[in-house]
Amino acid sequence: MNKVIKWAVLSSCIVLLTACENEPEKQFELSVSTPIPPTLGLLEHLRKLPFENEFGATVEREDGKVVFTNDNNIFPYKGKGRWNNSEDSFYHFNDVYQSTGILFQDPEWGDLFATSALLYQYDALFLKDTYYGSPSIISNPRMVSDGLHNSIKAKLKETSLVDEREDGRTIVYWVEISSGMFFEVNHISLFHQQGQWVFQLGIPCTLDQKKLCLKKLQEINTRLELNNAMLANANEESLEPSIKPTSFYVDPYRRVFGSWRSSSGNRLSFKIANTDFEKSKECPNYTRSDRCYSYNNGDSITWFRVNVENTELREEEFFSQNHQGDVLQTKKSKYYAETQPVFIVEDTNAKKITGLATTYFNDNRLIQLEYGFHSNDLDARDVMTDIITNMRF
Question: What residues pair up with 8 in beta bridges, in sequence order?
Answer without folding.
Answer: 67
